[in-house]
Design brief:
NAD; about 40% helix; oxidoreductase; alpha/beta
């Protein structure tokens, strides 16, 4: 997709010596260098990377951080071969080094994490060329020893932001979060931290689902049993945290807040008509097609779009890029997620307008305003 917003650069990398193929799409840098993670999956395509780069353009604009939108992808089929994976990633990093960090700043995504971000910055030779690095990977150019260190996604900034988005949406819907029943689909990094933070806020988590199955307890899931899942001692379906239910039953639960935190299109034609909730907070990227999202909105469900709710990760990246410590990072995430969620959901409710359309409109206006000022 090409329009007045981008993309500015589409870079294709191929290294025949090792068979590495990758893509970098820098969509828009009006607000700052393009920010977006590197995904390493068997089926990643230039088109997929381009669509994700555009989403990052809107996400970063709406989050109010001086980043543009970008994304990268490496075709990776060598699961388990860490040496080859490092070679792929560092070959890719050296090939796009020219763009970092002035036009592109990398970060973790599907198939990459803090270890890969360490590899990336080692290859580019620039601490600022990627975020999401291990906490002990520090910038040695200036500052005291130990300062300006990495903030890995394992700190839970995305889930932290999702929890605060849920809290703001509940407030605007007139729902007491401490009395709200919450269901979370997906119990990986984002889902587990969303669970932790919502629980700390007083919400009642009544259902969880992951690849092993789903559990439900209308009075709230047992914390001790969930603790065993978080520690890796039990699978969710084996945890005795609640009653084991089918995937179909999960989508029929009459909860206040539903948080899809798993895979793309997890809400689809097969389950959309069962959903009986007041609020959906999209923790995962593209949890449903836009047509289904609009259908649920017209049924009266308040929706916090993905690039609003899950922007905590990229806001954390901005904090790391600036050299802030985790304490300051969490404060920035809370403030910016709350501001964006309140802005989008309030306008959606007031004018009965699809929240995704509201969010994209605001993001575009900010980019166009910056262009007008620099003209």
């Amino acid at each position: 997709m090409s329009d007045q917003y981008g993309p500015e650069y589409v870079v294709k990398i191929y290294e025949p010596r090792i068979g590495m193929e990758g893509f970098l799409v820098i969509d828009n840098t009006v607000l700052g260098p393009g920010k977006g993670g590197i995904r390493m999956t068997p089926n990643v395509t230039e088109d997929e990377v381009g669509r994700l780069a555009r989403t990052m353009t809107w996400k970063n604009s709406l989050a109010g951080i001086p980043f543009g939108g970008a994304k990268a992808g490496i075709v990776w089929t060598g699961a388990g071969d860490e040496k080859l994976k490092k070679q792929y990633l560092q070959t890719f990093a050296k090939a796009i080094k020219y763009f970092t960090p002035g036009k592109y700043i990398a970060g973790p995504d599907v198939g990459t994490g803090e270890k890969e971000m360490r590899w990336f910055t080692e290859a580019t030779g620039n601490w600022r060329s990627a975020t999401g690095k291990p906490a002990n990977v520090c910038m040695k150019i200036f500052g005291k020893p130990g300062e300006k260190c990495g903030i890995p996604h394992e700190f839970g900034s995305t889930g932290f932001g999702v929890a605060h988005a849920a809290a703001i949406a509940a407030e605007l819907a007139g729902i007491d979060l401490k009395k709200a029943a919450v269901a979370i689909h997906g119990f990986g990094n984002v889902g587990t931290f969303t669970y932790r933070y919502l629980l700390a806020m007083g919400a009642k988590i009544v259902a969880l689902a992951d690849k092993s199955g789903a559990v439900y307890a209308p009075r709230g899931l047992k914390r001790e049993a969930i603790g065993k899942v978080l520690r890796g001692e039990k699978l969710l379906a084996e945890s005795a945290a609640g009653r084991v239910i089918t995937a179909e039953r999960f989508w029929k639960l009459p909860v206040d807040i539903l948080i899809p935190a798993s895979v793309t299109d997890v809400i689809n034609e097969s389950n959309k008509n069962f959903i009986n909730v007041k609020i959906i907070v999209e923790a995962g990227n593209i949890p449903m097609q836009e047509a289904i999202e609009d259908e649920l909105f017209r049924r009266g469900i308040i929706i916090v779009p993905d690039f609003v709710a899950n922007a905590g990760g990229v806001i954390s990246s901005y904090a790391e890029y600036r050299g802030y410590n985790p304490k300051i990072m969490f404060k920035i995430v809370e403030r910016k997620i709350a501001e964006a969620t309140r802005l989008v959901v309030a306008e959606s409710i007031t004018f009965n307008t699809n929240p995704r359309l509201v969010a994209v409109k605001i993001a575009k206006e900010r980019i166009e305003a910056k262009l007008a000022r620099s003209a």
